Amino acid sequence: GAGVSQSPRYKVAKRGQDVALRCDPISGHVSLFWYQQALGQGPEFLTYFQNEAQLDKSGLPSDRFFAERPEGSVSTLKIQRTQQEDSAVYLCASSHPTSRGGNYEQYFGPGTRLTVT
Amino acid sequence: AQKITQTQPGMFVQEKEAVTLDCTYDTSDPSYGLFWYKQPSSGEMIFLIYQGSYDQQNATEGRYSLNFQKARKSANLVISASQLGDSAMYFCAMREGHTGTASKLTFGTGTRLQVTL
After folding, report:
1. Cβ contacts (< 8 Å) between A43 and chain B: which residues?
2. pLDDT of A10-26, one tens digit each?
């Protein structure tokens, strides 16, 4: 596949349920990012992996949010005991040194729209 | 203080005309990168153009150019010869830190561009 893929595209969860969101980055991309985009807002950073190492998780809003990338490729964002304020689009992006000066542009997936009822 | 400010919630432009989308940024880091992304209604963020803080010339990519005014801390996107397919949300984003590394992006709130006949 050429791009970043995410699944599911849509998820409806009842408050209190756990959810797992999957991201398949572009093959060979070592850097992977998760962002949360609330309605009408720009994406906000959640966490960052380089290969399997989680180098920055400063954006995770609470300890109910957990992300992993055990083999350095596919990543999963897990939200435990979902709450209504977790409703948003969750975007995954991957990045790699480019041949154009290493600007590390991030390539985004289509996102998972999570609705908590 | 907002790190990325986009003051135009919505813009209209006639087909084949040029349009400028405003972006100002705030950072004390001497090394940073500025990005513009397009987000159509499908939700995927599409990378458009990049400007590094040390780049001497304004970036250009096809019909997109970035008007980089470092002293004013502005990085406006210029779209020439607008097309109906340019109708979308446009986000300005910044990466702080050394331009040779991957790191999180901070996004503005976006500008919705509508191209009319």
Report:
1. 45, 91, 105, 107
2. 999 999 999 999 999 99
